[in-house]
Design goal:
The complex is a heterodimer of chains A (287) and B (271). Chain A folds into 2 domains: 2-44; 56-286, Orthogonal Bundle (MetI-like fold), CATH 1.10.3720.10. Chain A has 287 residues and is an all-alpha fold. Chain A has helices spanning 2-45, 47-51, 66-97, 100-115, 118-136, 144-154, 156-168, 172-180, 185-196, 198-214, 217-223, 240-247, 253-286, and strands spanning 56-57, 62-63. Chain A has a two-stranded antiparallel sheet with strand order 1-2. In chain A, a hairpin with a 4-residue loop joins strand 1 and strand 2 (62-63). Chain B is of the alpha/beta class. Helix content of chain B is 36%, strand content 23%. Chain B contains 9 helices and 11 strands. In chain B, the strands form 2 sheets. In chain B, strands 1, 2, 3, 4, 6, 7, 8, 9 and 11 form a 9-stranded mixed sheet that branches. The longest helix of chain B has 19 residues, at 2-20. Classes of the chains: A mainly alpha (287), B alpha/beta (271). At the A-B interface, strand 1, helix 5 and helix 12 of A face helix 3, strand 7 and helix 6 of B.
């Protein structure tokens, strides 16, 4: 009987291990397939001509995605400029000022915000933000600034929840010590708490960037998808993700491989961002 | 395209299995499947025709897939579909296939209804999309940047537009890009300073068609050959068409089928 129980326990454990590892397997497979499809073109056309090429005309043999890399970073930085101050303020309010009731109301609201599908954000952007930008700022409205605005809101939940965790984990003694020195609440926050939670807050920004750079649907709808590097915040632009989603439907042959190469570049960028957020910054916390 | 190919192969396999089962042979109610794949510009019209066709031909199942002209032609070469749909002429290397022109489609340059510009020259359209004309004042309207909207690389409508209008000139990189006729129309309908090009069948009151070189885009002017931005909608076959698929094609080319196409805003062979 004991043998049977032991067997059962082991069996359950191994089943769980198998399922746990399967997510790793999926990651590995995705990696493998994107690389297998994306790398041949790098070898054929040359890494330099793809990453630093200015001209994207895949049916004519040009696969330069440099403008899209720049555009992807521009919208991401734009999203941070809008989302980071808002997100951090909200996190500070939640962790330092708000009472229990407010927290009970704000937290689920944020989760709801995180759960809104990106196509809905895109739709609202097209209906409201694009015309607003067109009428009050000029340009077609399909622009860097509209995209940044919408992405800025989309990355709020990521920034808030992670920087909130960082702020909350600052030991209570820090706050008490600061108060004992006669510091006001705001002095305590910006002199003591924010510096202590700095790494976590930075990690939240970088994960927010990862979210923004990977966003596709909303971006296609609002960005205008022009191939040129935008000259002003009112110009349209095309991101790496947008390029893939926009053209995949009709792409064949080298064109299709070019889109996979775009995917490889995107994957590398997101990996670097995640690496910085997870290892670079968290290790600092450990110290 | 691998996935897409499966999307084409799977129904075929199913049809094959069904036809292999001994019981279904010789039964009068046996369904016959025709698979069609290709251009997403032709697809909605093929679907419409199929809907009407199966009303009178109950033992037919017509399976219509998208994928784009090139994918459709490729599927015909691989014999994975009965018919391919293409919104562009065959290229070198595809010329061994047979084409059946089912109708013609005008590509219409459209602007916002508030835009007072009603006419431009073909060369002006070319200059707008190549970036040489970038302000509405150059076309006699107010001093405001032109928001040109094009289609994405690989689209049949774009490649037809490149052949018929751009004629070797490249579409400017600063031109906005949308991934369907519908979204181009949506941008033009909402942005007063936009200009785009869409399939004639999709023009409605939300956008204003522009006359090219003094010729209004219409079924009449296309028929008479005066409106020049016209592309064929083709069905592609590999060798002889098998009789059941022939029946569907004959229906499309019949007066009834052509009337349906005409009602959709396309240019058929009858009046």
């Amino acid at each position: 009987m004991i043998d049977r129980t032991v067997f059962k326990e082991r069996f359950v454990k191994w089943v769980l291990v198998a399922f746990a590892l399967s997510s790793l397997l999926f990651l590995f497979l995705i990696f493998l397939f994107i690389l297998a499809e994306g790398l041949p073109l790098f070898l054929k056309v040359g890494v330099k001509n793809i990453i630093f090429g200015f001209k994207w005309a895949p049916t004519k043999g040009y696969f330069g995605i440099f403008p899209m890399i720049i555009s992807s970073f521009l919208v991401t930085i734009g999203a941070l400029v809008i989302g980071a101050p808002m997100g951090l303020s909200c996190a500070i309010y939640l962790s330092e000022y708000s009472g229990k009731k407010m927290k009970m109301f704000l937290k689920p609201a944020l989760e709801l915000l995180a759960g809104i599908p990106s196509v809905v954000f895109g739709f609202l952007g097209v209906i409201y933000i694009v015309p607003l930008v067109r009428n009050y700022l000029g340009g077609s409205g399909f622009s860097l600034i509209s995209t940044s605005l919408v992405l800025g809101v989309m990355i709020l939940p990521t920034i808030i929840s992670i920087s909130f965790d960082a702020l909350v984990s600052v030991p209570k003694t820090y706050r008490e010590g600061s108060a004992a020195m006669g510091a006001t609440k705001w002095q305590t926050i910006y002199k003591v708490i924010i510096p202590s939670a700095k790494s976590g807050i930075l990690a939240s920004f970088i994960l927010g960037m990862g979210r923004a750079i990977g966003e596709t649907m909303a971006v296609i709808m609002i960005a205008g998808n022009a191939l040129k590097i935008p000259g002003s915040i009112l110009d349209p632009l095309r991101t790496l993700t947008g390029n893939i989603a926009l053209e995949l439907a009709y792409a064949t042959g080298d064109h299709r491989l070019g889109l996979f190469s775009t995917g490889v570049v995107l994957m590398v960028i997101i990996m670097i961002l995640n690496y910085i957020a997870n290892f670079g910054i968290k290790r600092k916390i450990a110290k | 395209m691998r996935l897409r190919r499966w999307a084409i192969i799977l129904p075929l396999l199913c049809a094959f299995l069904v036809s292999c089962s001994p019981n279904s042979n010789d039964r009068p109610g046996r369904k016959h499947t025709i698979t069609i794949a290709g251009s997403t510009s032709v697809m909605p019209f093929t679907e419409k025709l199929a809907e009407h066709f199966v009303v009178d031909h109950k033992n037919f199942i017509i399976d219509v897939q998208g994928g784009g002209s090139t994918a459709g032609i490729q599927a015909v070469i691989n014999n994975t579909v009965d018919l391919g749909m293409s919104s562009r002429e065959l290229k070198e290397g595809e010329k061994t296939l047979n084409t059946i022109t089912i109708c013609h489609d005008g590509i219409v340059v459209v602007v916002h209804p508030e835009n007072p510009v009603t006419e431009m020259g073909l060369d002006q359209v070319r200059q707008i999309f190549s970036g040489r004309i970038s302000n509405w004042s150059q076309l006699g309207w107010k001093d405001r940047k032109i928001d040109a909207v094009s289609r994405e690389e690989g689209s049949g409508t774009r490649s037809a537009f490149e052949d018929l209008v751009m004629k070797g000139k490249e579409i400017n990189d600063a031109t906005m890009v949308q991934d369907s006729n519908g979204s181009v129309k949506e941008v033009v309908a909402t942005d007063p300073y936009a200009i785009g090009y869409i399939s004639m069948g999709l023009v409605d009151k939300k956008v204003k068609p522009v006359a090219i070189d003094g010729v209004n885009p219409s079924i009449k002017t296309i028929k008479s050959g005066r409106y020049k931005i016209v592309r064929p909608f083709l069905y592609i076959t590999n060798g002889e068409l098998e009789p059941k698929a022939r029946q569907f094609v004959d229906y499309i080319l019949s007066k009834e089928g052509q009337t349906i196409l005409k009602n959709e805003g396309l240019v058929g062979f009858y009046d």
